Each structure stands twice: as structure tokens, then as C-alpha cells.
Amino acid sequence: MRNILFLTFLLLTSNLQAQDEEVILKYFHSITSEEVFGYAKTLAGPEYDGRLAGSPGYTKAAEYVAEHLKEWGIQPGYNSSYFKHYPLDYTTVNSVGSLTALLIDSKGNTIAKSYSFPEHYYPGSNSGNGEVSGDLVYVGYGITAPEHQYDDYKGIDVKNKIVMLESGHPKPENAKDWDDWAAYAGSSEKMNNAIQHGAKGVLFISKIASPGITYNKDIIYCHIDDKVAEEFFFARHLSLEKVRKVLKEKNKPQSIELKHNITLSADTKHHPDGSYANIIGIIPGSDPLLKDEVIMVGAHLDGQGNLGELFPGALDNASGVADIMAAARALSNLPAPKRTIAFFFIGAEEKGLLGALEYAKDPLFNKDKTICYINLDMVGNGNGLYFGGGQSFPGIYKHFEAANEQYIHRTMKTNYLNRSYKGRPRTDGMALSQHGFRALSVHCTDRVKKLYYHHPADTPETLVPEIMEDVSKWLYLGLYSLANAESIDLNEVIKPE
């Protein structure tokens, strides 16, 4: 039975000979859960300090990956170097800071409250340093958009006050996609708008580590849990739920002076002279006619850093990096494939997909010769596989489908690419897709353990080593099969209406 399955697999890699079975299966079985989990555990460790792009911790992580690529004989992508460097500022958060409030009810009674990290708030990744106090004003989305006749600050004085704002943006009929609001709805744009209106502190109602907000020394901010925001409304005998409902359904500002006195402190130091790198290693193709065709597989290496407490970033995204590393190590032992295989470890995803966008502007490989880019993000917790975009490119997908059916035996789902999507890209794969690359993505389905997204509890203990092993083995077989195909049908299948 094993021989029948292997010969079926060889039909997709027709240049291989039956005698290659032993070496392919040898290195297939050499990939273990202990190996893959080991890479992820190391990258999530305190030595790398959360792998914040721009920081020394990220640089150490990049060197760790490159050292392994070199050890395995995988060639540098950038001539003699694995790295392409870019300048990037970053902020050190020395402690979790503090958030306190003097709540005032509708009758003038007061109560002092002190909030705790990480239950109630996260400090701002790029907050200014110091302490501010001021009255609290809820400003809805925090947007001023003249061409949409929309202003959350209209009729509200926030000078020297603390503003509390929501993520997202209004969605009236004339705003059919993100592009209508892109100049206003990003967190950095909302921060700048608060500063322009005179606010000295910001509470984002979104408790998430977010290193992509642009640094400004003149404002201190943090991210708060919904329950904290609800408490601020409840103390005034108001309902945040009702205010939000009107805000979303009417698409009209619902700003309110809540009048509680908020004190917010941050202990930060900004570093304007940091840098990060994209890392590329390659296994060159051997076929004179096909070696310039490239199959890329990648994952973002950076994390959320350290906000006074380590954010290990084990699932997001040490898992994706580790899956690729194990597959790369195994592939490096096989006869050279026809096409080039490139392993892409991307920087500054958490800062706004910067590494992917830099690559899109100046790609190492000709876009027309890039067969596909396969993106792995948070691939380490689940029972099944999801190959995003596979139905749009069946000529690519069939290699990975066959590898799963014949060797991995996991439930695998796929879909069509959403070409009508106009929103802000959320992954490196989406960013590259919007710049014309044939980008697909890999995720896990059927989560096994609790998910901690951008959270200090995203530790190696939340990973499932068995799925990581299978993802690596599946990549190993699928990439090698695709790289050795006599021909690849790249005609895109558009999603049926």
C-alpha cells in the first residue's frame, strides 16, 4: 500500500525515480514534533524579548533563523547574505504603567478605582513617557472626515482631557469599502486626530498589543478591556451597548462627556534608530529551463515585544516560522528540485505588514516567475488544515491535496480567493496578493487549546506539537512535488457568483 501511495505521489513529480522513495521518506520521517516545537519554544523565549521589529530581540531571532539555514546548506537569498535590512524605530516599554480612575456618578458621588494588567488594560506599545490626568470623554470612532460630513469631535471640547474611542469606522451607504475611510480609520490616524484636538491621553477600547501605532511623544495611551469601558458608562447610569447600537445603526457621532477623572501613566523610551530585516534562504532549482521559477513559503518572524511583561508570540507567529524551518531542513537533504524553493521569514508584520510591503516594492524574484507565495500565520493549534485560496489555483493546490491524502490524513479545507475584498490587508499574504502576487495561506482548523491573541499567555504551552509536525511534513511533500512538476497550470479560477 505504501508503494502504491508513493507512486501516485510520483505522478505529480514525474522527474523523480522510484529509487528516490527511500530518501524522500527518510527525511519525511525525520521531521518530529520535538524538532518543530523546539524551534517555536526557543523563539518564544525571553532571550528574544518578544521579537519586536526594530529591536535587538528581533535581530537575535533573525540571526537564529539564518544560522540554521546556513547549517543546513540553504543558500542566502541576497547574494552572500540572508538579510535585507530596513530602518525602523521602536519603543521600549519598561513597565506595565498604571491606570486609575475617580468615578463620578450622576449625583456627584465618587469612588476611586485602580485597574490591573493584563486583565483590564495593556500599555501602549508606542506610548509617550510620563503621567497624565484629565476628564474622560467618549468620542465614538474618534474620526474627523470632512468629505463624509462626519466628525466625532464636533461640539466636544477635549483639550487637556482623556479621550476614549472605538476601533472601526462608520458604514453609511456611500462607504462601501475600507478605501473610503482609510485616511481616517487606522489607529495611528485616530491618535493624530486626538492630538490635533488637544487630548493628552487616549484609551482605546480594544485590549490588544498593537505595536503598529505611530509613536508620538506628546500623548500617552493604553488599550482597555470592554468591561472597563462599560463600567465608565454604568457609573454615569448610561449604557455603552445602547450608545454603540446608535453609533453603528445611525452612523452619527455619539460623543459624551463622561467626566470621570482618569490618571494614566507609561514608562517608555523611544529608539528612533532601530532596524529590522527580511530573511530569505533558497534551494536553487536544477532544471535549466525551470530554475528561474520560484515557489515561496513564508511566515512573519516578529512579535509584539515586551510591554513590561513578555509577550512570547508562540502561536503568533513562532509556530509558522518553526513549521517552515523543519520543512526547510528536511528539503535541504533531497536532490535539488527543478524549480527554486525560497523560504521567506518576514519582519515588521505587526508594525503594519511593513516587511511584506517592502518586498512587494522591490522583490528579489521576478513577480512573473514567482509561481506562488504561501503564507503561514498562527499554524500551531488545531486538528485540521486550511489552505486559503486553493480553489482559485487548482494547479498548485493538487500537490498539497495529494500530499495530505496520501501521507498526512488531516481534514483539509480550502476556498476561493476573495478578489472583491477592498479592506485593509491583515496578513503578509493579503498584502502581497494586493500587489499582484499569487498568494495563498495556511491555517489550522478545529482549535484544540485556548487561543491567546496578542496576549502574554501566548506561550509555547498553548501550541499543539502534533499538528505542527504534520504541517511541516505536509509542506515538505507539497513544496517538493510542486517544485518538480513538469508543468504547472496557473490559470486562476474565479469564485462563482
Automatic annotation (TrEMBL):
Keywords: Aminopeptidase, Hydrolase, Metal-binding, Protease, Signal, Zinc. The keyword Hydrolase applies. Residues 132-210 form the PA domain. It comes from the Bacteria. The keyword Protease applies. Residues 1-18 form the signal peptide. Residues 278-472 form the Peptidase M28 domain. This is M28 family peptidase.
